[in-house]
Amino acid sequence: MMAYLFMAVAIVAEVVATSSLKASQEFTRFWPSVVVVVGYGLAFYTLTLALRTLPVGIAYAFWAGLGIVLVTLIGILVYGERLDPPAVVGLAMIVGGVVIIQAFSQVSAH
């Protein structure tokens, strides 16, 4: 169960860091740049803790899939970005893949 907590922290930290990349304006703004560096550091550290028990492929599927969806939502809410229908379908497929892995795969339950 701790592995999933570490994964959640890793994903949130990575999403915050990735979302702050745009605000850093190519690392020309100090505080958003600090958030990027600290966020990625925390994300990778907690990911290594999750990998103590989770298979790397499953962990990466969660990391990438949920990260993509959450960063997209932040892009919409914070930066006013818009999605077209194919993007929505693609995101739904990513979420579906993560749900299928979690619900049906024996590998995810290490």
Query: Helical stretch count?
Result: 4
Output mean pLDDT: 93
CA-based gyration radius: 15 Å
Q: What's the helical proportion of residues? A: over 70%
| Percent of sequence in beta strands | under 5%
SSE topology string: HHHH
Ends distance: 10 Å
The tally of strands reads 0
Helix-strand makeup class: mainly alpha
Largest sheet: none
Q: Which stretches of 5+ consecutive residues score pLDDT under 50?
A: none
Write down the overall geometry.
flat
Identify the notable features of this structure and list them briefly.
110 residues; mainly alpha
In short:
This protein has helices spanning 2-23, 30-50, 56-79, 85-104. With 110 residues, it is mostly helical.
Describe the structure.
With 110 residues, this protein is an all-alpha fold. The chain is built from four helices and no strands. The chain has helices at 2-23, 30-50, 56-79, 85-104. The longest helix has 24 residues, at 56-79. The radius of gyration is 15 Å and the shape is flat. It starts with a helix and ends in a 6-residue tail after the last helix. The mean pLDDT is 93.
